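[User] At your convenience, examine this fold.
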Amino acid sequence: MKLSKKILAGVLGVAMVAMTSVSALAVAPGYSDYGASDEKDVVAGETLELTTTAKTGVTVEVAADVLPEGVKKVKMEVAAVDNTKVADAIATAEKDGFKNVAVLDIVLKDQDGNPIEKLNGKVTVTVPAAGNQNAVLYIADDNKVSDMGAKLSNGYLSFETDHFSYYAAAEKVNGAVDGGNDNVQTGENNNVTIAVVAIMFIAAAGIVVLSVKAKKVRAK
């Protein structure tokens, strides 16, 4: 009986380790690590490219003439948004046919650290697409969501906007996405499937071993 308990404990331990690995694989990459771009000087007639220093790869391309008057330097900051804070918006998005929603707070700041909320034209924003994410949603203050018509290319989603607020990368279900269906990254899903199969195999092997040992103990 003691031997059987030890074997069972071992099988459960292996299964727990494997499940931890699956959890790590299932988490959408790129949305737990954010940062800020370097601060850049605004030069008339030039387009600035601001990219976060973290591994998120969030980029904003902004022409100098779309910035408000008086802005001499600009930087971008990106932060994760707790989904519980935008639960109503996420519920609306899911009702509209979106899932795997990851909300971003993207902010431009001037030389004094003040947020630049309104621009004089559009800028291009690029965010990484995790898993099967193929769309970007704008989340308004009243929790309404709007599809930004983002383009998916090589694992990144690009869209245009004239102001900054909450935006969410998401997976659009049963809907075509212009210019990028064949670029959707599916490697993470494949890894999860393989890990699940491995867990099932380990668990089955453990049960067989446990049964054999139990029979031997009873025979004695």
About this structure: Residues 187-219 form the longest helix (33 residues). Confidence is low (pLDDT under 50) at residues 14-33, 176-199. The two ends are 12 Å apart (CA to CA). The chain is about 30% helix and 30% strand.
